[in-house]
Design goal:
With about 190 residues, the protein is mainly α. The chain has a single domain, classed as Ferritin, CATH 1.20.1260.10. Helix 1 runs antiparallel to helix 2.
């Protein structure tokens, strides 16, 4: 375990953590893209995989700017998020849209983690006057925000809509509502 004696040391440790996270994602994203039923979701994930590979390379550049070896430090947070996502993908879903909704949820957990981590690293680099490092990390931060927005758009425009239709169908298949539910429904319509 490293001894954190300065903001610069903390920044290096953050970059090592991000380096591990991004390398883990290079392995995890193809699995999500492969099981996604939606072509749009699969395409978005594959596109972000290409960005993630560039982000790994960008972090290697940052190590060079900081004059430290490119060395990963296990990112326990990302490791856990990926493991949870793997569990979700293995669930038995009644419809592909439900699995796709779960994939989006898992992918957005990843993005939100990265947004927080890159935002912190950018702030620390700026505080240290490391403008080139900050600009490089900011580029990745913006890509993560864009990926999150794309996932939100996919969820809201189609995937969650289709997944919600599963609820409508299961409600239609169940018996008629109880008398109390019928009365509440009539009261709302007044």
């Amino acid at each position: 375990m490293a001894s954190i004696d300065s903001l610069h040391t903390l920044l290096v440790e953050e970059i090592r953590d991000l380096y591990d996270a991004e390398r883990r994602l290079v392995k995890a994203i193809p699995k999500m893209a492969k099981v996604a039923a939606s072509e749009d979701l699969s395409s978005a994930l594959e596109s972000h995989l290409e960005e993630t590979q560039q982000q790994v390379s960008r972090l290697e550049d940052v190590f060079g700017m900081l004059d430290v070896p490119a060395k990963a430090k296990t990112c326990a947070g990302m490791k856990g998020i990926i493991e949870e996502g793997d569990e979700h993908m293995k669930e038995d879903y009644e419809a592909d849209s439900l699995r796709d909704a779960a994939i989006i949820g898992s992918a957005q957990r990843v993005e939100h983690y990265e947004i927080a981590a890159y935002g912190t690293a950018v702030a620390h680099a700026r505080q240290l006057g490391l403008d080139r490092v900050a600009r490089t990390l900011e580029q990745t931060l913006q890509e993560e925000k864009a990926a999150d927005a794309k996932l939100t758009d996919l969820a809201e425009s189609s995937i969650n809509v289709e997944a919600g239709e599963q609820d409508d169908e299961s409600i239609d298949r169940t018996s008629s509502p109880s008398p109390a539910m019928s009365a509440r429904g009539r009261n709302r319509s007044r």
